Amino acid sequence: MKSRNPRPAPRRQRSRARRPRSRVWRWLTWPLAASLGLAAGLFGWTHLMEHVAPERTAVVSLQISGNRRVPPSELVALCGVIPGTPLGSVDLEGVAARIRRHPWIAQVRVTALPPERLLVGVEERTPRALTRLGDELHYVDGGGVPFAPAPAPADIPELVGAEAAAQDLPSPALVEGIQILDALAREGLPAPLRIEVGAADTGERPAFEWRRGQLTQRVVLGAGGFAEKLARLARLLRADLSDAREAIRLDLRFAGRVILRQPEPDPSTRDEEADPEGDA
Predict the structure, then answer these.
(1) pTM here?
(2) Contacts made by residues 147-152, CB under 8 angstroms, sequence distance 24+
(3) Domains of the chain
(4) pLDDT digit string, tens, across residues 135-178
(5) What is the DSSP letter of 10?
(6) What is the largest CA-CA distance in the chain?
Protein backbone atom coordinates (compact mmCIF):
# COMPACT_ATOMS: atom_id res chain seq x y z
CA MET A 1 0.00 0.00 0.00
CA LYS A 2 1.35 3.35 -1.04
CA SER A 3 1.80 6.24 1.40
CA ARG A 4 -0.39 9.26 0.91
CA ASN A 5 2.41 11.69 1.83
CA PRO A 6 4.70 12.44 -1.09
CA ARG A 7 8.36 11.74 -0.56
CA PRO A 8 10.34 14.90 0.19
CA ALA A 9 12.61 16.07 -2.56
CA PRO A 10 16.31 15.56 -2.09
CA ARG A 11 18.27 18.39 -0.46
CA ARG A 12 20.05 19.23 -3.68
CA GLN A 13 16.79 19.74 -5.49
CA ARG A 14 15.36 21.94 -2.70
CA SER A 15 18.38 24.21 -2.65
CA ARG A 16 18.31 24.54 -6.42
CA ALA A 17 14.68 25.49 -6.25
CA ARG A 18 15.36 28.36 -3.81
CA ARG A 19 18.60 29.63 -5.40
CA PRO A 20 17.08 32.04 -7.99
CA ARG A 21 15.04 33.83 -5.33
CA SER A 22 18.08 34.16 -2.95
CA ARG A 23 20.24 35.57 -5.69
CA VAL A 24 17.70 38.27 -6.57
CA TRP A 25 17.33 39.18 -2.89
CA ARG A 26 21.05 39.55 -2.44
CA TRP A 27 21.33 41.84 -5.45
CA LEU A 28 18.63 44.04 -4.02
CA THR A 29 19.83 44.19 -0.42
CA TRP A 30 23.60 44.59 -0.82
CA PRO A 31 23.57 48.12 -2.35
CA LEU A 32 21.03 49.23 0.24
CA ALA A 33 23.10 47.80 3.09
CA ALA A 34 26.27 49.34 1.72
CA SER A 35 24.62 52.76 1.47
CA LEU A 36 23.24 52.51 5.00
CA GLY A 37 26.59 51.34 6.31
CA LEU A 38 28.45 54.17 4.65
CA ALA A 39 26.00 56.75 6.02
CA ALA A 40 26.18 55.23 9.49
CA GLY A 41 29.96 55.14 9.32
CA LEU A 42 30.22 58.77 8.31
CA PHE A 43 27.74 59.83 10.97
CA GLY A 44 29.50 57.77 13.58
CA TRP A 45 32.93 59.17 12.63
CA THR A 46 31.69 62.74 12.73
CA HIS A 47 29.93 62.11 16.02
CA LEU A 48 33.08 60.52 17.41
CA MET A 49 35.32 63.40 16.26
CA GLU A 50 32.98 65.93 17.85
CA HIS A 51 33.59 64.26 21.21
CA VAL A 52 37.22 63.19 20.85
CA ALA A 53 38.65 66.16 18.88
CA PRO A 54 35.98 68.84 18.55
CA GLU A 55 38.55 71.40 17.41
CA ARG A 56 38.98 69.40 14.20
CA THR A 57 35.35 69.69 13.19
CA ALA A 58 34.23 73.06 14.55
CA VAL A 59 34.38 76.40 12.75
CA VAL A 60 36.21 79.43 14.13
CA SER A 61 34.56 82.47 15.67
CA LEU A 62 36.88 85.26 16.85
CA GLN A 63 36.59 86.95 20.23
CA ILE A 64 38.88 89.99 20.78
CA SER A 65 39.41 91.74 24.11
CA GLY A 66 41.68 94.37 25.67
CA ASN A 67 41.68 96.81 22.75
CA ARG A 68 40.75 100.43 23.45
CA ARG A 69 42.38 102.44 20.69
CA VAL A 70 42.80 99.78 17.99
CA PRO A 71 39.57 99.04 16.07
CA PRO A 72 38.53 95.36 16.20
CA SER A 73 38.43 95.26 12.40
CA GLU A 74 42.19 95.91 12.24
CA LEU A 75 42.93 93.06 14.63
CA VAL A 76 40.59 90.69 12.78
CA ALA A 77 42.39 91.49 9.53
CA LEU A 78 45.78 90.84 11.15
CA CYS A 79 44.60 87.47 12.48
CA GLY A 80 44.27 86.21 8.92
CA VAL A 81 41.77 83.52 9.98
CA ILE A 82 38.84 83.02 7.60
CA PRO A 83 35.48 82.36 9.32
CA GLY A 84 34.72 78.67 8.99
CA THR A 85 38.34 77.56 9.35
CA PRO A 86 38.65 74.41 11.50
CA LEU A 87 39.92 75.45 14.91
CA GLY A 88 42.57 72.73 14.97
CA SER A 89 44.20 74.04 11.80
CA VAL A 90 44.80 77.59 13.14
CA ASP A 91 48.47 78.47 13.74
CA LEU A 92 48.20 80.22 17.11
CA GLU A 93 51.80 81.46 17.14
CA GLY A 94 51.40 82.78 13.61
CA VAL A 95 48.27 84.70 14.59
CA ALA A 96 50.06 86.22 17.61
CA ALA A 97 53.08 87.21 15.51
CA ARG A 98 50.91 89.01 12.97
CA ILE A 99 49.02 90.94 15.65
CA ARG A 100 52.30 92.06 17.29
CA ARG A 101 53.13 93.94 14.10
CA HIS A 102 50.50 96.55 14.98
CA PRO A 103 52.34 99.57 16.45
CA TRP A 104 49.87 99.96 19.32
CA ILE A 105 50.07 96.34 20.50
CA ALA A 106 52.51 95.60 23.35
CA GLN A 107 51.40 92.06 24.30
CA VAL A 108 49.06 89.47 22.76
CA ARG A 109 47.62 86.15 23.88
CA VAL A 110 45.93 83.75 21.44
CA THR A 111 44.00 80.80 22.85
CA ALA A 112 41.92 78.10 21.15
CA LEU A 113 38.75 77.33 23.12
CA PRO A 114 36.97 74.27 21.64
CA PRO A 115 34.64 73.70 20.06
CA GLU A 116 34.64 76.90 18.04
CA ARG A 117 36.15 80.01 19.66
CA LEU A 118 39.51 81.66 19.07
CA LEU A 119 40.28 84.08 21.91
CA VAL A 120 42.61 87.01 21.19
CA GLY A 121 43.58 89.16 24.18
CA VAL A 122 45.76 92.23 23.59
CA GLU A 123 47.50 94.80 25.75
CA GLU A 124 48.00 98.17 24.13
CA ARG A 125 50.93 100.52 24.60
CA THR A 126 50.39 103.54 26.83
CA PRO A 127 51.80 106.78 25.40
CA ARG A 128 53.86 108.56 28.05
CA ALA A 129 55.37 111.36 25.98
CA LEU A 130 55.88 112.76 22.50
CA THR A 131 59.03 113.17 20.47
CA ARG A 132 59.88 114.27 16.94
CA LEU A 133 61.27 111.88 14.38
CA GLY A 134 62.16 114.18 11.52
CA ASP A 135 59.22 116.53 11.12
CA GLU A 136 56.63 114.20 12.60
CA LEU A 137 55.51 113.80 16.20
CA HIS A 138 55.51 110.25 17.56
CA TYR A 139 54.17 108.70 20.74
CA VAL A 140 56.76 107.32 23.18
CA ASP A 141 55.91 104.39 25.47
CA GLY A 142 57.16 103.63 28.99
CA GLY A 143 60.27 101.92 27.62
CA GLY A 144 61.46 105.02 25.74
CA VAL A 145 60.37 103.57 22.38
CA PRO A 146 58.74 105.79 19.72
CA PHE A 147 56.01 103.53 18.37
CA ALA A 148 53.33 105.39 16.40
CA PRO A 149 52.76 108.76 14.74
CA ALA A 150 50.80 111.26 16.82
CA PRO A 151 48.20 112.98 14.62
CA ALA A 152 48.16 116.11 16.82
CA PRO A 153 49.85 117.38 19.97
CA ALA A 154 48.47 115.59 23.01
CA ASP A 155 48.25 116.54 26.66
CA ILE A 156 51.49 114.73 27.49
CA PRO A 157 55.06 116.08 27.68
CA GLU A 158 57.28 116.42 24.65
CA LEU A 159 60.82 115.06 24.88
CA VAL A 160 63.21 117.34 23.02
CA GLY A 161 66.79 116.62 22.00
CA ALA A 162 66.73 112.89 21.15
CA GLU A 163 68.19 113.36 17.68
CA ALA A 164 69.30 109.74 17.28
CA ALA A 165 65.91 108.23 18.14
CA ALA A 166 64.29 105.85 15.65
CA GLN A 167 60.84 104.29 15.50
CA ASP A 168 60.35 100.98 17.36
CA LEU A 169 63.79 101.23 19.01
CA PRO A 170 64.55 102.40 22.56
CA SER A 171 66.63 105.57 22.78
CA PRO A 172 68.85 106.32 25.84
CA ALA A 173 67.80 109.97 25.74
CA LEU A 174 64.10 109.03 25.65
CA VAL A 175 64.57 106.47 28.42
CA GLU A 176 66.10 109.28 30.49
CA GLY A 177 63.04 111.44 29.84
CA ILE A 178 60.71 108.65 30.98
CA GLN A 179 62.79 108.21 34.15
CA ILE A 180 62.29 111.91 34.95
CA LEU A 181 58.54 111.56 34.43
CA ASP A 182 58.48 108.57 36.79
CA ALA A 183 60.49 110.45 39.46
CA LEU A 184 58.14 113.45 39.21
CA ALA A 185 55.12 111.17 39.64
CA ARG A 186 56.65 109.50 42.72
CA GLU A 187 57.06 112.92 44.37
CA GLY A 188 53.52 113.94 43.46
CA LEU A 189 54.79 116.73 41.19
CA PRO A 190 52.94 117.69 37.99
CA ALA A 191 54.11 116.56 34.59
CA PRO A 192 56.06 119.22 32.68
CA LEU A 193 55.24 120.74 29.34
CA ARG A 194 58.52 119.58 27.81
CA ILE A 195 61.74 117.88 28.87
CA GLU A 196 65.08 118.60 27.26
CA VAL A 197 67.10 115.38 27.13
CA GLY A 198 70.46 114.34 25.73
CA ALA A 199 73.87 115.92 26.14
CA ALA A 200 74.42 119.69 26.06
CA ASP A 201 77.62 121.74 26.05
CA THR A 202 76.34 123.90 28.89
CA GLY A 203 75.72 120.89 31.17
CA GLU A 204 72.17 122.06 31.85
CA ARG A 205 70.43 119.03 30.41
CA PRO A 206 68.25 117.35 31.35
CA ALA A 207 65.94 120.21 32.16
CA PHE A 208 62.21 120.75 31.94
CA GLU A 209 59.62 123.50 31.80
CA TRP A 210 56.28 123.55 33.56
CA ARG A 211 53.51 125.98 34.36
CA ARG A 212 52.88 127.17 37.91
CA GLY A 213 49.92 129.48 37.87
CA GLN A 214 50.57 132.08 35.19
CA LEU A 215 54.34 131.56 35.30
CA THR A 216 56.45 129.22 33.19
CA GLN A 217 59.41 127.93 35.21
CA ARG A 218 62.54 126.23 33.94
CA VAL A 219 63.95 123.50 36.21
CA VAL A 220 67.56 122.47 35.54
CA LEU A 221 68.47 118.96 36.70
CA GLY A 222 71.82 118.21 35.12
CA ALA A 223 73.05 114.64 34.71
CA GLY A 224 71.99 111.83 37.05
CA GLY A 225 70.55 111.68 40.54
CA PHE A 226 67.03 112.55 39.42
CA ALA A 227 65.30 110.97 42.43
CA GLU A 228 67.29 112.98 44.99
CA LYS A 229 67.08 116.23 43.04
CA LEU A 230 63.34 116.02 42.55
CA ALA A 231 62.82 115.09 46.20
CA ARG A 232 64.72 118.28 47.08
CA LEU A 233 62.49 120.25 44.70
CA ALA A 234 59.35 118.73 46.25
CA ARG A 235 60.46 119.81 49.75
CA LEU A 236 61.03 123.35 48.50
CA LEU A 237 57.61 123.55 46.87
CA ARG A 238 55.87 122.18 49.96
CA ALA A 239 57.45 125.02 51.95
CA ASP A 240 55.50 127.37 49.64
CA LEU A 241 58.08 130.16 49.69
CA SER A 242 57.26 133.22 47.64
CA ASP A 243 60.76 133.26 46.13
CA ALA A 244 60.21 129.73 44.79
CA ARG A 245 56.73 130.57 43.48
CA GLU A 246 58.00 133.63 41.62
CA ALA A 247 61.27 132.20 40.28
CA ILE A 248 61.61 131.69 36.56
CA ARG A 249 64.52 129.25 36.96
CA LEU A 250 65.29 126.63 39.60
CA ASP A 251 68.74 125.01 39.38
CA LEU A 252 69.15 121.65 41.16
CA ARG A 253 72.61 120.73 39.90
CA PHE A 254 74.39 121.58 43.15
CA ALA A 255 74.16 119.17 46.08
CA GLY A 256 71.81 120.19 48.86
CA ARG A 257 70.85 123.50 47.24
CA VAL A 258 68.31 125.02 44.87
CA ILE A 259 69.48 128.16 43.13
CA LEU A 260 66.60 130.46 42.20
CA ARG A 261 66.56 133.13 39.55
CA GLN A 262 63.92 135.81 39.75
CA PRO A 263 62.50 137.65 36.72
CA GLU A 264 64.42 140.71 35.67
CA PRO A 265 62.57 143.85 36.70
CA ASP A 266 60.81 145.71 33.93
CA PRO A 267 62.84 148.91 33.28
CA SER A 268 59.72 150.95 32.64
CA THR A 269 58.21 149.79 35.91
CA ARG A 270 61.44 150.65 37.73
CA ASP A 271 61.39 154.18 36.31
CA GLU A 272 57.79 154.65 37.39
CA GLU A 273 58.63 153.45 40.86
CA ALA A 274 61.58 155.86 41.01
CA ASP A 275 59.47 158.84 39.95
CA PRO A 276 55.80 157.99 40.56
CA GLU A 277 54.76 161.67 40.14
CA GLY A 278 56.25 161.91 36.67
CA ASP A 279 57.26 165.46 35.72
CA ALA A 280 55.11 167.02 38.39
Answers:
(1) 0.71
(2) 147/103, 147/104, 148/103, 148/104
(3) 56-124 (3.10.20.310), 129-261 (3.40.50.11690)
(4) 899 999 999 999 999 987 778 999 999 888 899 999 999 999 99
(5) P
(6) 180
